[in-house]
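I'm curious: can you give me some protein's one-letter sequence along with its backbone structure tokens because I've never seen that pairing?
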Amino acid sequence: MTHEQAVYLELLARGAATEAYDRPVLLARASGAGPEELAELEQAKQLALRVRAELEGRRRREAELSALFETAHDLAGLRDLDDVLRAIVQRARSLLGTEVAYLSLNDPAQGDTYMRVTEGSVSARFQQVRLGMGEGLGGLVAQTARPYVTEDYFRDERFQHTESIDSAVGDEGLVAILGVPLTLGSQVIGVLFAADRRARVFEREQVALLGSFAAHAAVAIDTAHLLAETRSALTELERANGIIREHSGVIERASEVHDRLTELVLRGGGVHDVAAAVSEVLGGTVEFTEQPPGPGRIAEGHATRDGDDWIAAVAAGGETFGALVLRARPDLDPVDLRTLERAALVTSLLLLARRSAGEAEQRVRGELLDDLLDAPDRDPRLLRERAARLRADTDAPHVVLAARIDRAGAGAEVEAAGREGADRQRLRSAASHLAATRHGLASARDGGTVLLLPLGPGESAAELARTAAKQLGTALHEPVTVGASAPLTEPLAHPERVAPAYDEARRCLDALRLLHRQGQGAAAEDLGFLGLLLADTRDIEGFVDRTIGQVVAYDRRRGTDLVRTMDAYFACGMSPARTKDELHVHVNTVAQRIERIGRLLGPDWQSPARALEIQLALRLHALAEAVVR
């Protein structure tokens, strides 16, 4: 590194002005330096300027953060509202580098907004100006609750110019103005401004920074109002020391619940954790319910009395998730009421965050299962890595399930057509939750959902289908029919097996609906000879074993002839008299054998449906025996 290049490090170290960075190049050119040396110096200069700009940017961001932290500290030790608002306006002016900053508050009684705090202002008329709603830049911000910025106020036709406002702005000499709303919930209570007496462009970051200060100012005003309410209540109850202590305890509880709710959010607590914390602080029973009273009885952001109870809506963006209900506390003071309302707000934020995370995980799980079904040539190693990131079980045998909501009764088809989209979304959410809890995958498909779930120890595909149908039906309060495939070993290592298994599960689902078994779950093994036709594996031996296996095993153990007796019994039209002639035995022998068969197969073995399956199993068993011989 040359001496001239080292000069730039010295300039950076002492924070020299931008103009000073041209001097080393000028001196080198004056001393007759060659083009190569000048090029190196120019390169070093540009690098140093970039470093300087980066350092200035970081210092600016540090200053902004420091100002925000200082403002938050002022709020924590709030004593005088004017002092805090004045500090916010001063810091806004300093950080944005404007000549003037000011803050106005809305006056609901007169329907306008008035100047509350100014910094850098020299005009008395400007400091006392009042703006009607929609008048001037400030009136438009107060009316629309949106930030507005203008490079040249007097040439900007977006605002309603009035003689009184333009005169006040002209007296102050303002040209470029930025205004952001001060909001409490959905209510605008005022406007925070930063302005210059020359044309200027306000950057997006500056708009956001002024918005942050406006949020602090709104909190300060809200907190001051709450403290004013508390002081008023304490003043009215001065003579009763016991009541004073009670109200002091309320304030302490409010502080405690704030700290506890903050801690719950930071450590990832849940909805019921919030309810338990508020119950303890308020000295009552607080419950979260997903089915609050009708929307006309509760309002977002406010608690409503319901008999001896208080109900605070857990809602955000117009969507209601439920409510926090405080039981048996008819006399609730304003601070405790505010505590309940803020707990409802925290609960809504937790539910929104959980839902966002859940939707993201659902989408990723669905994409992996879609790839298994639609792109079986994917690299198995990559599939296993994706499954591992989702904590999906990749080692156990899996079953593919096809599920669909089924409604019975008159008009069900018309109703289903009107609710098809909502049903799909509800079923997908419930299936995704089931898949996550069982370390499997789920996706929407063909008007229903498809799941790939691992089998538990000793669990069969049919048992898993029945369990899934019951859990999904309970979650949706609707009958959900589930068809299952035969178990798959290592589906991620052999993705080509998943799509055929899904086809088998869908065939089982369709068979259940044709058999009027809506709301049930089953695999091919539950459907008798129909399952034999539906299954891809054509497990003939398994069908025979499930149907007459106990009788076959009994014959082998005891040396009896029950299988041949059943065959002859059906061949003789289920007549014991004709069967005894066919077997050349006494009719009592036939009766004893039929009784034994009934004990092994169950009392309904002669019903038409069972008899059909048993006769098919007898034929298949005879064929298998012939092949063995």
Notes: The CA atoms of residues 440 and 578 lie 56 Å apart. Confidence is low (pLDDT under 50) at residues 409-416.
